[in-house]
Design a protein that fits this description.
Blueprint: H1 3-17, H2 24-29, H3 41-55, H4 71-80
Helix pairs in contact: 1-3, 1-4
Length: 84
């Protein structure tokens, strides 16, 4: 999977986790925080669960969750865990 494909997939997961309150395009464009776009704490939990299912990784409670605050950060997090 290429990095642009990974970002696109993650942006789609953000849209689904937010019940389409956040568009994939907006998620891709946000450089600081998905929370600024309106991703709630419940939305973040749903996003983490979707990422775990889709990419077969476990997000550990001890992980720095700020790494999951943008699509770009999520992509980096997954790359560090071997998602190609």
């Amino acid at each position: 999977m290429t990095l642009p494909d990974l970002r696109h997939d993650l942006a789609e997961l953000v849209a689904a986790a937010s019940d389409d309150q956040i568009s994939a395009a907006d998620a891709l464009a946000e450089p600081e925080s998905l929370a600024l776009l309106g991703l709630t704490s419940i939305g973040q939990v749903r996003l983490i669960q979707a990422v775990e299912r889709r990419f077969g990784v476990a997000v550990e409670p001890d992980d720095d969750l700020t790494q999951l605050d943008t699509v770009e950060a999520l992509a980096g997090y997954l790359r560090e865990r071997g998602v190609a």
